[in-house]
Design goal:
280 residues; YqhG
Length: 280
């Protein structure tokens, strides 16, 4: 992540977490943290415990971030922020904690100046998965899936479809939501089943090769620790431990984890999002 993206992410984080940008320059910015941003980014648990127990007015910290120290004015002091610094790692952790699940409404692209008509939203559940192909080697890929809660349509690459649209965390005027046919729990089950079937249809050559390497390692272990009646108990335990380690390391498996998810109420016609993959 280059410095431009670090700054863009930092400014977006501060805005979404109700922090005030007090001063912004080409190489730096000064911000007044909100209470929960202060708790996430600064290690002050005893201060907040004291303030809350004594019912005192809170005083969140002001921070100054510098993004280009080589061209930065000497009279303005600040903390050099870049990818890999502890402070930016705290920002990423905080964003992940508070952004695990979102509910957003698409802002209307065009609205007649004078109209009393109201329009419903099309509700979509989006889940971003990390799919890991694990053996003695590892490969990760991201999979973004969206499912329409009204008709069960599943859309691959959902993030790419919605990333450039404008969203709000409040319901816009002249828009309303309807009770979806699918509950969130049912929709999650459909996405998991769809993802599982997709993985089953993929090329499994990597798993077959990993199984061959696993068997080769186990045969090598048997040569090093031959099964003999006189083998001491300590050696048997050592062989068992080594076998478990080899199986864990080489046995091919697919691990799936959820990065984040959200409910997205889409204002555009439904056909613009679908790709004809009806799963129900």
């Amino acid at each position: 992540m280059d410095q431009k993206k670090v700054r863009e992410f930092t400014e977006r984080y501060l805005k979404l977490n109700d922090c005030h940008i007090l001063e912004s320059g080409p190489t730096y910015l000064l911000t007044q943290l909100s209470i929960h941003a202060d708790k996430d980014l600064l290690n002050r648990p005893f201060y907040w415990m004291y303030v809350e127990r004594m019912n005192l007015p809170p005083q969140p910290v002001r921070l100054s971030f510098v993004f280009d120290p080589e061209n930065h004015p000497e009279e303005i002091r600040g903390e050099h922020l870049f990818y890999g610094t502890p402070r930016f790692a705290k920002i990423l952790q905080s964003a992940q904690k508070h952004g695990k699940f979102v509910r957003l409404y698409e802002e209307p692209r065009y609205e007649p100046a004078y109209t009393d008509l109201t329009k419903p939203y099309s509700p979509w559940l989006a889940v971003n998965y990390k799919v890991s192909y694990v053996c003695d080697q590892k490969r990760d890929r991201l999979c973004s899936l969206g499912i329409n809660l009204n008709d069960g349509t599943i859309r691959e690459g959902f993030y790419e479809v919605i990333k450039d649209r404008r969203w709000s965390n409040r319901l816009p005027a002249k828009r309303y939501t309807v009770e979806p046919r699918l509950q969130v729990v049912e929709a999650v089950g459909e996405l998991e089943y769809y993802l599982e079937e997709t993985i089953r249809c993929e090329d499994l050559t990597w798993a077959e090769e990993a199984e061959k390497r696993l068997q080769s390692e186990l045969e090598r272990l048997d040569v090093f620790y031959p099964d003999e009646p006189s083998m001491p108990d300590e050696i048997q335990k050592e062989k068992k431990r080594r076998r478990e380690e080899i199986v864990w390391q080489f046995h091919p498996r697919v691990e799936i984890s959820v990065i984040n998810a959200g409910l997205f109420y889409v204002d555009t016609p439904q056909q613009n999002l679908t790709n004809q993959k009806i799963w129900l």
